[in-house]
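Render Tripartite tricarboxylate transporter permease in 3D.
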Amino acid sequence: MDTLIDLGGGFASALEPLSLAFALLGVLLGTVVGVLPGIGPISAIAILIPVSFGMEPVHGLILLCGIYYGSMYGGSITATLIKTPGEVASAVTAIEGYAMARRGRGKAALATAAIGSFLAGTLAIIGLTFLSPVLVKLANVFGATEYFLLMATALLLASTMSSGSRAKALISIFIGLAVGLIGLDFQTGLPRQTFGMSLLSDGVDFTIFAMALFAIPEAIRNLALGRGAKEEIQSFGEDKWMTKQDWQRSAMPWARGSVLGFIIGILPGVGPSLASFMSYIMEKRISKRKDEFGHGAIEGVAGPEAANNAGVGGAMIPLFSLGIPGSATTALLLFVFTMYGLQPGPLIFRDDSGLIWTIIASMYIGNVALIILNLPLVGVFVKLLKMPKEILFSSILVLVVIGAYAIEFSLFGLMMLGIFGVIGYLMEKGGIPLAPSILALVLVPLLEDNFRRMLQISGGSFMPLLTRPVSLSIILLMVLGIVGPIIFRWWVRRRALLADVSVA
């Protein structure tokens, strides 16, 4: 009851004209930021921190939080329409979303992304409101050992993200791991795979890598096709909204993605990016239409988009309740809190409860504003595909180049874009899937950091993998996931063989 009273007070403050204006401005800016490759919520928040200096703390935090979850949906627009992820968590959406757009189903893809984002965001904020204390205790069960196994499990499952050869999927994973190791060792400070170039000391930016692998090969391929590319895009008939079957196929992925994204978002240091990849892997593994994945399965858009938006709400729980950032973006928000003289943690709900509940209430309002803002514009966004191919794909290349340059304002970033663009094109020509490389690059720092911390804590021993109950459970699930399908296939073949023998 106290929670509802506090939330009601938060709504009273959040609905004041100035607070409401900053909430709407935040989600609008977030959507634009998500659409523009190379910007992302971290860069946008960093740019606007000086602007928020002169604001009231509640208004500044409402604005910056709105940018955070607004960008989660904005990134899905370009990922779906032109296979150019505007934000890290939208990279996996480019797989099925773009395939749906090429089949004349761009409106359905954007609609399921918008609705899934709204539902997941709403459920995540409800969870943030009522479940914070319980879920924070659950997150504290995870130590370095459990995080390492979680990342290793994600890499193991990455080979199932695409159809075709598992060997080629593993090659893609190793490419992502190799790129992720470029730069200075974060413990020793020694350079790794930098080839003597100081410009590689900071490693390869994820956004450049993702844009190079997804957008560059697609643009080259379509421009090389000449007039055929235009016909290929526009010959699928009138683009329609979601059908009854689309709603039925999206309902459970929305629900599963919301729960999975919220739980993963709570884990400090993980954030919504991993949630979207894990949701895609889960949807593909349990789907009865596995052959559609890679060719425009709506579940591959609905689940990940719900997961990455739920992950935003989940990431706010350790930030508000423990003062621990759940992602890189919330780490920046933590700095903003301290800039205003606030200290997130258990005491903030006592000392600054009005501010926190106003921010939470503004998230409800912003989530509604996002669905109202974006659903009517779906038809406008899809009209991008009606542009002549020369203009469309040339514009994509220009947009990607500007985005890559804007990351560090360096020509070296453009060189990296070109190099990895060629690598991505060769990978596509060789039938090597791109998505596992993206996931591997995301997981490298988390995997390495937690592996080293596990060994440091245990004195170089691997025994914590077997002595900690949660880690042992994860290992057993990994073994079951590997051995289970093999045993099941053997059993099916044996039953079929016995049936043939009995008939004979």
